Amino acid sequence: MDQSVAIQETLAEGEYCIIAVQGVLCEGDSRQSRLLGLVRYRLEHGGQEHALFLYTHRRMAITGDDVCLDQIVPVSRDFTLEEVSSDGELYILGSDVTVQLDTAELSLTFQLPFGSHTRMFLQEVARACPGLDPATRDPEFQWLSRYRCTEMEPLPRGGNSALGTWPGCARIGGGRYPSGEGRWGLEEARLQGWALLCVGGVVMELPGFLLAEAAAGADPWGSAGGAVRRRDEELEEAAEMSAAAGSRDRDSSGGSHLDNLRPNGKGLFVDQSSRGQDKPENLLTRQTKSKLEITDMVRSSTITVSDKAHILSMQKFGLRETLVKSYLMQKEEDYTYIQNFRFFVGTYNVNGQSPKECLQPWLSHGIQAPDVYCVGFQELDLSKEAFFFHDTPKEEEWFKAVSESLHPDAKYAKVKFIRLVGIMLLLYVKQEHAAHISEVEAETVGTGIMGRMGNKGGVAIRFKFHNTSICVVNSHLAAHTEEYERRNQDYKDICSRMQFCQVDPSLPPLTISKHDVILWLGDLNYRIEELDVEKVKKLIEEKDFQTLYAYDQLKTQVAAKAVFEGFTEGELTFQPTYKYDTGSDEWDTSEKCRAPAWCDRILWKGKNITQLSYQSHMALKTSDHKPVSSEFDIGVRVKNEELYRKTLEEIVRSLDKMENANIPSVSLSKLEFCFQNVKYMQLQVESFTIHNGQVPCQFEFINKPGEESYCRQWLNANPSKGFLLPDSAIEIELEIFVTKTMATKLNSGEDKIEDILVLHLDRGKDYFLSVSGNYVPSCFGSPIHTLCYMREPISDLPLETVRELTLMPLWTEDDGSQLENPMEIPKELWMMVDYLYRNAAQEEDLFQQPGRRLEFEHIRDCLDTGMIENLDTLCILHHSVAEALLLFLESLPEPVICYSAYHNCLECSGNYTASKQVISTLPTFHKNVFNYLLAFLRQLLENSEKNHLDENILASIFGSLLLRNPAGQQKLEMAEKKAQEFIHQFLCNSP
Amino acid sequence: DVLFRLLLIRDSRVGKTCLLCRFTDNEFHSSHISTIGSQGVDFKMNTIEVDGIKVRIQIWDTAGQERYQTITKQYRRARGIFLVYDISSERSYQHIMKWVSVVNEYAPEGVQKILIGNKADEEQKRQVGRKQGQQLTKEYGMDFYKTSACTNLNIKESFTRLTELVLQAHRKELDGVRTRASKELALAELEEDERQTGSP
């Protein structure tokens, strides 16, 4: 969210918030949020000044009501804002940016959020710094005086005090000022408009030009505020919607497992001579998942989530609206037709007089009621007061005189009114057209004294009538016959400096030339030259205007393309309108005896414009000029509402379609996956293909609600995320692999081979993949006592029996069980030990060589089906059986020495008698297994000459298998040593 | 100006994917590959103007199968819901009751619902009587539309209706939007008043 809009609402005219960033002000230990806005102010005499406005704010600032001005730091020559890196601290990507603000008076530290916005902010601030060039003036920050205190103080007039340096910063008492609700009051506008000018060492006071603007009734902030609120709602909605996506993203990063850090690869029974021999569990583990992604941590940070909301709302919406607008513009002819409207354009230099006669001869006699009136005056008031204080009673007088003389056949509504000293422009439309007038803006440009003052210059009103944009300019250009080049320059200045705000503040301001229709009227002051006065008067008498016109400066200047390029003027069929003796139709009889001239002119530019009349009105004698009028039929583009709606709908529909086509979409070769007869530690793989559509997309398996990983532990998708170019495809493998941690629950039915994977496309759809299958229970992962109660091979038992026996509590054995007689030890254990005892007692490096993966699967099947004889007939490595035995012990959910006895055993590891005592407290089956295993190991030691085994080797292998830390995976070296020591005693001593 | 989410809830194969296409792109694909791709969550954007307010709508369509319910509930944060059945499938109609209870359980309060009997063009295969739809409508206090994605019957109408309902339900938040929409007109009226009082 661009919070500069909120700041902008609180600013005065002429002040513009370039960029805003939300940061944290650090003062000692205190941390307070501040909104930092870089504000630019354009000076009347050109150039600009900047200041950093600091606001306290509530939540994310959206409107002016959310912010409260706290402090202003002018961007003066000694102002610096620099990024500081904290020494010795590690730079973390994505961490806040600490910046130091220094001026001669103060020093502040801020933390700004990481990201491009902060970068941009810092760049803009750097650009705003005035630099050290002595040629440029020191900034004075006069404009900030309004903010000095909450009460408006009268500005000191004249004197050097006003030009003194600005105090380094201004702290504002309380309450924000000014309010962003309404337009500026007259009082404020006038004060604001004061400019102090230093002319020849004399300080002069001159009024600014903003009064007319303020009085004109425009409400620029009203519309801007509306736009802001509108955006805000979009944002909140979008943020809400993206919240779901965001939380999903966060979830997905949570599924890291320590297991994944194990370095060995996927293969089973790989011959790795370098691996640690004392850690048999390493032999059979594999890297199951690789979900630990550092990038996830960055992605799931909250900043990114809000950024997402940002992208979803602002940019997209802004873009969309702009697109709709430009398509509408492109298709304008489809839904508009041209309709002629009658425009009346009049100009009158009143020479500072008050209205003394009825204006009807000029405005309404002999014509049909026009649809639009554009009436311009020059020299409305020649008094000093008007010039300096910008206030004149003439304004009201002439406004009334015009309003009363409009055509009596129609009712008119005033659209706009603008005045710059003596240059005034009024715009009326027939009442019934009022609803079709929109985007009305008015501006002034002074080109008089100093090239800026309002004694000469132009005013303009721009508006949209139906679908056509129209700009009406009234100008009073430089006087005197020889000054035609000044006039040309004034025209150019008006064109270049006249800029209208757009409804959308992000769009560049409009200029005069960017309008469909331009009507230019006024006292342009071009004279007739190269003819003496008498000759001129004679030609006028003869009504030889054509000959006379050849000497008209405007004609020659236009012909030379020096001014009014592209404009048209109608034929001059009336005598010059200047200069008469006031109150008569006599030519100027004063000393100066000025030559008559066509000062007052009306020109136009644009298509579909027909001039119907162009005349002066001799009947009016109030001024030394005669008023001029012209009627036009102007073809205006009128919307056919029906067609417009249809076109708009088509555009919106096509944009929707485009947007929907841009939602990533893929097709999957398979959505249902069934894994038959999944066995313990036997990898099963099913693959499918993701075919991408036309939009590049990023896919990822995401977590289901409330789950920490995208799939069950026994499942893995490879790869689980990736990027697809248009029309490309990728093969995904779904792998099932059941290890000791999952086997028991699959045996007991607490877990099932059933899962749904959610394949999520970034900014797009979600696909559900369902995985199902059945698990074949195995003795691996079954508890010791459960196996003792299974007199049949596990595969011969009904699944229900396996479940019940697996869930049977460990200590049920003594309650005179109704179950049939259990065996003393699991038969599967006996099978393996017996096999090794018979075949491998003298095998070299027994328990230290890896087995073969495929052979393990055979051994597992033999044990589970009870085909003991197969074990002997199969030609398998003894090492495979040895490893299977270790695996069997490792996968016991309750170790041979129960978890509850673990700590006792470690404590008495030096004391053989006590150790034996602990063993005697174990549940019977566990005790049996322990004694049986130890007896076997001692047997092996008797063959140590052949098999090279000794007590230490066996203790280190079996210590950590028989004694397992109940706390889980963390292995303490001390504890492990003690566990080995504990087993060691039993290896050295006969029971 | 306003953005919210609407949800299609339905059994599989009640022609909802077609509905989605009709709603958004005004297109009808009769030869739809039905199974592949219908499992999951799909969405499309649509923009309409209702009562002078520009409304951007994300229409979400979630898989109907029971087994996905725990997953799809997270997608149910919608402002309005289309409950869709197929008039040629008695079963899909029976399931509406189930969907209503699911919606009541997971959807946020104040969610607007509308009942849609789709495939109205397949009159010859009709299994659900006209009155049955009306009956549910009464029972749950929902509006009912008989639609056909194939013939474009009532598609826009039902869609606009649900949007209106959602807008009505959020009238308060939207009042601001409305006043701004009429701002330009108000300006012209104001000027006219000024003139009347200004004239003698």
UniProtKB/TrEMBL annotation, chain A:
InterPro entries per UniProt: Endo/exonu/phosph_ase_sf, Ig-like_fold, INPP5B_PH_dom, IP5, IPPc, OCRL-1_2_ASH, OCRL1/INPP5B_INPP5c, Rho_GTPase_activation_prot
Keywords: Cytoplasm, Cytoplasmic vesicle, Endosome, Hydrolase, Lipid metabolism, Lipoprotein, Magnesium, Membrane, Metal-binding, Methylation, Prenylation
UniProt topology in membrane: Peripheral membrane protein
Location of this chain's protein in the cell: Cytoplasm, Cytosol; Cytoplasmic vesicle, Phagosome membrane; Early endosome membrane; Endoplasmic reticulum-Golgi intermediate compartment
Its EC number(s): 3.1.3.36
Any Pfam family the entry gives: Exo_endo_phos2
EC class name: hydrolase
GO biological-process terms attached to the record: flagellated sperm motility; in utero embryonic development; phosphatidylinositol dephosphorylation; regulation of protein processing; signal transduction; spermatogenesis
GO molecular function: inositol-1,4,5-trisphosphate 5-phosphatase activity; metal ion binding; phosphatidylinositol-4,5-bisphosphate 5-phosphatase activity
Catalytic activity: a 1,2-diacyl-sn-glycero-3-phospho-(1D-myo-inositol-4,5-bisphosphate) + H2O = a 1,2-diacyl-sn-glycero-3-phospho-(1D-myo-inositol 4-phosphate) + phosphate
Predominant place of localization: cytoplasm
Annotated segments matching region Disordered: 220-284
GO cellular component, one term: early endosome membrane
Residue span(s) of domain Rho-GAP: 817-991
UniProt entry tagged with the keyword Transmembrane helix: no
PANTHER family: INOSITOL 5-PHOSPHATASE, TYPE II INOSITOL 1,4,5-TRISPHOSPHATE 5-PHOSPHATASE
Annotated function: Hydrolyzes phosphatidylinositol 4,5-bisphosphate (PtIns(4,5)P2) and the signaling molecule phosphatidylinositol 1,4,5-trisphosphate (PtIns(1,4,5)P3), and thereby modulates cellular signaling events.
Family statement drawn from the similarity comment of this UniProt entry: Belongs to the inositol 1,4,5-trisphosphate 5-phosphatase type II family.
UniProt protein name: Type II inositol 1,4,5-trisphosphate 5-phosphatase
Naturally occurring in which organism (per UniProt): Myotis lucifugus
Gene: INPP5B
TrEMBL record, chain B:
UniProt record, GO biological process: protein transport
Main location: membrane
One cellular component term from this protein's GO annotations in UniProt: plasma membrane
Subcellular localization: Cell membrane
Molecular functions (GO terms): G protein activity; GTP binding; metal ion binding
SUPFAM superfamilies tied to this protein: P-loop containing nucleoside triphosphate hydrolases (SSF52540)
Keyword Protein transport attributed: yes
Record Gene3D superfamilies: P-loop containing nucleotide triphosphate hydrolases
InterPro entries documented for this protein: P-loop_NTPase (IPR027417), Small_GTP-bd (IPR005225), Small_GTPase (IPR001806), Small_GTPase_Rab (IPR050305)
Enzyme Commission identifier(s): 3.6.5.2
Swiss-Prot/TrEMBL cofactor(s): Mg(2+)
Catalytic reaction list: GTP + H2O = GDP + phosphate + H(+)
Membrane topology annotation: Lipid-anchor
Entry keywords, A to Z: Cell membrane, GTP-binding, Hydrolase, Lipoprotein, Magnesium, Membrane, Metal-binding, Methylation, Nucleotide-binding, Prenylation, Protein transport, Transport
Subunit (UniProt): The GTP bound form of RAB15 interacts with REP15. Interacts (GTP-bound form) with MICAL1, MICAL3, MICALCL, EHBP1 and EHBP1L1.
Family as reported in the entry's similarity comment: Belongs to the small GTPase superfamily. Rab family.
Function according to Swiss-Prot or TrEMBL: The small GTPases Rab are key regulators of intracellular membrane trafficking, from the formation of transport vesicles to their fusion with membranes. Rabs cycle between an inactive GDP-bound form and an active GTP-bound form that is able to recruit to membranes different sets of downstream effectors directly responsible for vesicle formation, movement, tethering and fusion. RAB15 may act in concert with RAB3A in regulating aspects of synaptic vesicle membrane flow within the nerve terminal.
Name this polypeptide is given: Ras-related protein Rab-15
Organism: Myotis lucifugus
Higher taxonomy: Eukaryota, Metazoa, Chordata, Craniata, Vertebrata
